[in-house]
TrEMBL record:
<dbReference type="Pfam" id="PF00590">
    <property type="entry name" value="TP_methylase"/>
</dbReference>
<dbReference type="InterPro" id="IPR014777">
    <property type="entry name" value="4pyrrole_Mease_sub1"/>
</dbReference>
<feature type="domain" description="Tetrapyrrole methylase">
    <location>
        <begin position="6"/>
        <end position="206"/>
    </location>
</feature>
<dbReference type="InterPro" id="IPR035996">
    <property type="entry name" value="4pyrrol_Methylase_sf"/>
</dbReference>
<dbReference type="InterPro" id="IPR000878">
    <property type="entry name" value="4pyrrol_Mease"/>
</dbReference>
<dbReference type="GO" id="GO:0008168">
    <property type="term" value="F:methyltransferase activity"/>
</dbReference>
<protein>
    <recommendedName>
        <fullName>Tetrapyrrole methylase domain-containing protein</fullName>
    </recommendedName>
</protein>
Length: 260
């Protein structure tokens, strides 16, 4: 095993309060702290915890996000290769919709370094709390919005549906103001064929600066989805469309009576 290691941690979505104690210990003790977080206050706070802290360059001039992600992995590995114990910080859960975080762990393992990821609190976790959604009741399906459309993902409309990255549907590059309307129009059309035009969805934004700010919970009929206020941190939640039918034969096999 090479000297040098990588630990990838997440800050959670809300400022400061959602960081785990384990993640904080790694942040403080790292020989080198690198971070890719969305807001300047968190960046300042990370610098106060570890003076080696440095932002991982996030180049939005590239035509494809993938190229930027590759550069981020290279930046992280360049420190690990120097034999340092590196902690890389991402916002939310570092393994949820976080290509470079997984990429850095894979690359570190390939090069013979110790590497681990610690879980954090994701936007979906905040959604469960803010909207009052228990995935145990009807189940929960979660897709990246472009992937959902281009692969015609099979899903069950009687179960909760969560779609991520609705501001960059069909966009392999970076968010452009107003550039999301076409993708959102296509998504709305497709969803209306499964639900109804009046079916109310929620465009959700967890509060980053809680308790100073409240979460944004924008209820919108699917037919009006393209007119909703959507930002790069919006996530779409479509509630279950009626209860799923029961399989009486299966219930009998499992010894579940009529009263369940
Ligand atoms: C690159 S992913 C990062 C996800 C992050 N790692 C997490 O654990 O939630 C960005 C997407 O996450 C979701 N997201 C990020 N911040 C959010 C927030 N404050 N509220 C709701 N969704 C958010 C949106 O779907 C956004 O397009």
């Amino acid at each position: 095993m090479q000297t040098g290691s990588l630990t990838v941690v997440g800050t959670g979505i809300q400022l400061v309060g959602q960081l785990t104690l384990a993640a904080q210990a790694h942040i403080v003790q790292a020989d080198k702290l690198l971070f890719a977080v969305a807001d300047p206050v968190t960046a300042k706070w990370l610098r106060s915890l570890n003076p080696t802290a440095e932002a991982i360059p996030y180049n939005t001039d590239r035509t494809r996000r993938k190229e930027t992600y590759r550069e981020m992995v290279d930046r992280i590995l360049s420190e690990v290769r120097q034999g340092l114990n590196v902690c890389a910080v991402f916002y939310g859960h570092p393994g949820v919709f976080a290509d470079p975080a997984h990429g850095a762990i894979r690359q570190a393992h390939q090069e013979g370094f110790r590497a681990q990821m610690l879980p954090g609190i994701s936007a979906e976790d905040c959604l469960f709390a803010d909207i009052g959604l228990d995935p145990g009741v009807n189940g929960c399906q979660s897709f990246e919005a472009t992937d959902f459309l281009i692969r015609r993902r099979k899903f069950d409309r009687t179960s909760a549906l969560i779609l991520w990255q609705i501001a960059t549907i069909g966009n392999l590059g970076f968010y452009q103001e107003g550039g999301h309307i076409h993708g959102l129009t296509v998504l709305a059309e497709v969803l209306q064929t499964h639900y109804s035009p009046e079916w109310q969805a929620i465009v959700y934004e967890a509060a980053v600066y809680y308790p100073v700010c409240e979460p944004v919970i924008q209820r919108v009929p699917l037919s009006k989805l393209p007119e909703a206020k959507v930002t790069p941190v919006s996530t779409l939640y479509v509630p279950p469309f009626g209860p799923a039918p029961l399989d009486r034969e299966m219930m009998a096999r499992l010894g579940l009576g009529a009263r369940g």
